[in-house]
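Why should sequence recovery work at all? Because a backbone constrains its sequence more than one might expect. Tight turns favour small or flexible residues, buried strands favour hydrophobic ones, and helices have their own preferences. The token representation captures these environments compactly. In the example below, the structure is given first.
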């Protein structure tokens, strides 16, 4: 399965190509936008009526993800007087979108915000939620696991009752696919694009439903790609799907979807001071971590790395004797005392998604200073995007001050930074580990497994005294919410949660 890191290059490629082809794209796809605008028109309430469950309220705020140059979709909502935030990873598109949307502004109070960002990195400003999120022809360079993760994020960002609209095309070359064509090559506008993902109408229906949204409108039209033959003309099936986030349901109602939050589950002050390390350690102790440790051991051995700086969880002492080189030194970023004197390899072990990457990187470069020139290999261990379910739970539980980075993004960032530093030979290895935090000998009942997991997870909180009414109330509310989340995760797996690790191994050229 490709991770977003692997897609790093494909995305860069895409940015360059896309920029050159804008006019061709817009001309070739004119017809595609007719069914899209038709559905979007149906959700605009006439100014003299109130909104309905399938229409937008007056003054609604729209988030257009992958907004491109802002026309014809974002601009449609600006003309209706609504607030629009557009995000896109291409800076030049964002600049053009700013001009296009400003031109159509209806009133001085209308909020128009355009942000140049990779969507994986985007977090709405604190407290901001949206009435409508758009993903129009967005996901062609996103692996399926990451699409699923993004949909869950979108659902968090929507108001209860908020709307989600997606349009995406399946080119005729892939019509035989029942669900996805992933990591394929596509000839389009005279170029070969690699690592492409395209989904069938059924695939979109399935992922949107699995994210807990109710489908309101669903259309699949055959649309001609209106290009000259040489540029890759043909027919596409374009899916347009409008869905709605259910109104917030009571926790004990069948409609309650724990993956929709509230997040964080527990305010920061109720998390024990030891949680960052001890809490993780408790969880990871319930994980079949040996496969990952073995993969790291193989990579270190192949490189005869005998002086390794380890940056990561406090797991280090659990297994190093058995698995890793004798000469690994744990390097705590907060103290320079144990900095290895002549490291030939660096190992980042699940250490990065909770840190501010840029600051962390600068700090690290400063501390390692001249030693960095001796380092020949950097290994970064993070998780694959489809481990999202577990991470959502873990993150929510810790009530983090900021949303942790997506693991795919961390890998993408590390690949880029280390390539710039001369570690140009890049390889990815995936291993699969399993969390068994609901398992206990002799226990087969799913509900009992949920209780075991909840007790374990709640054990990472500050434990209140018997007289501390407020504390007891908090911990009970936390457990109740956690029960829902755990049940949702376990319902597919009977108490075992898969967690795929991805190792990014970057070597300097020999
Ligand atoms: C085919 S264009 C569609 C633009 C616009 N939504 C429309 O329909 O006119 C896809 C857009 O999504 C953006 N995009 C793709 N992947 C993205 C990502 N991971 N983060 C942010 N933007 C992304 C691209 O830069 C591009 O502008």
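From this structural description, the recovered sequence reads:
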């Amino acid at each position: 399965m490709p991770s977003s890191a692997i897609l790093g290059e494909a995305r860069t490629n895409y940015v360059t190509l896309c920029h050159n082809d804008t006019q061709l794209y817009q001309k070739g796809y004119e017809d595609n936008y007719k069914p899209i605008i038709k559905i979007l028109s149906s959700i605009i309430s006439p100014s003299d009526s109130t909104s309905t469950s399938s229409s937008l309220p007056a003054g609604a705020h729209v988030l257009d993800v992958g907004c491109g140059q802002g026309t014809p979709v974002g601009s449609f909502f600006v003309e209706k007087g609504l607030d629009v935030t557009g995000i896109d990873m291409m800076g030049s598109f964002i600049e053009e979108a700013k001009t296009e949307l400003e031109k159509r502004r209806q009133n001085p109070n209308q909020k128009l915000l355009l942000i140049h960002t990779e969507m994986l990195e985007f977090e709405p400003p604190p407290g901001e939620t949206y009435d409508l999120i758009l993903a129009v022809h967005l996901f062609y360079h996103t692996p399926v696991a990451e699409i699923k993760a993004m949909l869950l994020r979108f659902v968090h960002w929507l108001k209860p009752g908020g709307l989600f609209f997606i349009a995406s095309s399946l080119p005729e070359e892939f019509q035989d696919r029942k669900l996805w064509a992933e990591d394929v090559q596509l000839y389009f506008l005279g170029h070969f694009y690699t690592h492409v993902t395209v989904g069938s109408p059924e695939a979109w229906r399935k992922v949107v439903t699995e994210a807990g949204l109710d489908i309101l409108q669903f259309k699949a039209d055959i649309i001609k790609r209106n290009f000259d033959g040489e540029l890759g003309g043909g027919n596409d099936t374009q899916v347009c799907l409008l869905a709605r986030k259910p109104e917030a349901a009571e926790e004990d109602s069948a409609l309650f979807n724990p993956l929709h939050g509230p997040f964080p589950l527990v305010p920061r002050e109720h998390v024990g001071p030891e949680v960052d390390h001890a809490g993780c350690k408790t969880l990871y102790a319930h994980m079949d971590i040996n496969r990952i440790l073995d993969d790291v051991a193989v990579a270190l051995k192949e490189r005869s790395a005998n002086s390794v700086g380890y940056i990561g969880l406090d797991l280090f002492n659990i297994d190093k004797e058995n698995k890793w080189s004798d000469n690994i030194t744990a390097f705590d970023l907060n103290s320079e005392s144990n900095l290895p004197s002549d490291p030939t390899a660096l190992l980042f072990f699940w250490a990065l998604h909770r840190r501010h990457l840029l600051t962390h990187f600068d700090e690290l470069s400063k501390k390692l200073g001249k030693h960095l020139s001796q380092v020949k290999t950097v290994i970064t261990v993070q998780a694959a995007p489809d481990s999202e379910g577990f991470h959502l739970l873990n993150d929510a539980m810790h009530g983090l001050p900021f949303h942790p980075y997506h693991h795919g993004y961390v890998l993408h960032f590390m690949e880029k930074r280390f390539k710039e530093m001369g570690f140009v030979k890049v390889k990815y290895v995936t291993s699969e580990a399993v969390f068994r935090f609901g398992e206990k000998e002799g226990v087969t009942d799913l509900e009992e497994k949920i209780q075991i997991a909840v007790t374990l997870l709640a054990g990472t909180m500050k434990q209140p005294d018997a007289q501390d009414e407020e504390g007891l109330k908090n911990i009970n509310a936390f457990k109740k919410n956690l029960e829902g989340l755990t049940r949702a995760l376990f319902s597919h797996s009977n108490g075992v949660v898969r967690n795929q690790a991805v190792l990014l191994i970057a070597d300097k050229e020999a």
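A few observations help interpret the result. Residues 66-68, 73, 88-90, 93, 118-119, 136-138, 141 surround S-adenosylmethionine (CB under 6 Å).
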